[in-house]
Amino acid sequence: MNKHKTSIKKYILISMLVLIISMTVSAIVTSTLLSVIKSESVVNYTISLVEGIIATIATGLVLYQLKLGEQTERHQNDIEEATFALQYNQAFIQDNNMVEVEQLLENQAYYDDEPREILTVENRHKFINYLVYIESMAPLVLTGVLDLDYIDNLMAYRFFMIIDNVEVQEKEIFPFADYYRGCFLLYKIWVNYRKEKGLGFPKDDCKNQNVMRELSKYKEFEKYCSK
């Protein structure tokens, strides 16, 4: 908000400066022409022509400054979003509990030779923390603070690995769906985003059958997607 106000003030100052210069140049031209040319009609025509040229140049300069300022601000926002996404990712990989949960999810989906339970009484809170971490991304994306373009490569795999896990759905997400509304909302827009981009999902190449399924298959999915 402060950056926006600063930008507006800058544009106003630029516009005022250009206006002052235009008026000064116009006054100088008028005085010069009146002393050289005796025909008032010719002077008025020439002044109008000069003022028109100056106004066009002034407008062009203001528009250029506005466009330049917008590009600079947009570039700064892009840098801030990318930095935030990297820090968010760094916080994930530095948390041993998060990494442990991710490994359990991966093993169950791709590497285990026999079906096994991964969400137990002993490690339930680790899974909850993982889900809460995912849940905390939802308001950032939904309010536009984070763009999916910046977090998709870093976080999509981790997001869909746990959200589409059948055991996690049955034991945690569905029984406590009211606490994971952000996950439902984010899931819906993220699935659409990836489909539009022609991108796949972890469940697409899941080796072990019945380990993963789309969260959208849940009968009350739309209910929990409503804000």
Q: How would you sum up this structure, described in words?
A:
- With 227 residues, the chain is mainly alpha-helical.
- It folds into 2 domains: 76 residues; 131 residues.
- 74% of the residues lie in helices and 0% in strands.
- It has 9 helices and no strands.
- Helix 1 packs antiparallel against helix 2 and helix 3 packs across helix 4.
- It is elongated and about 100 Å long.
Summarize the structure.
The chain is mainly α and 227 residues long. Helices cover 74% and strands 0% of the residues.
List the helices and strands and how they pair.
Elements (H helix, E strand, L loop, with lengths): L1 H35 L3 H54 L2 H16 L12 H12 L1 H6 L5 H16 L2 H8 L7 H16 L24 H5 L2
Element order: H for helix, E for strand: HHHHHHHHH
Q: Major beta sheet, specifics?
A: none
Tally of contiguous helical segments: 9
Q: Helical amount among residues, as a percent range?
A: over 70%
Radius of gyration computed on alpha carbons = 30 Å
Low-confidence parts: 1-5
**Shape by Cα distribution:** elongated
